[in-house]
UniProtKB/TrEMBL annotation:
Stretches the record annotates as Disordered: 1-21
Domain of life of the native organism: Bacteria
Species for this entry: uncultured Chloroflexia bacterium
Name of the featured protein: Uncharacterized protein
Extent of Basic and acidic residues compositional bias: 1-14
Amino acid sequence: MPVEHESAGLREPRFPVCNAG
């Protein structure tokens, strides 16, 4: 579920996945 991961990263900047992505 890439959409959920992206949403979580955008809403929660503590996710290194979105930052790295």
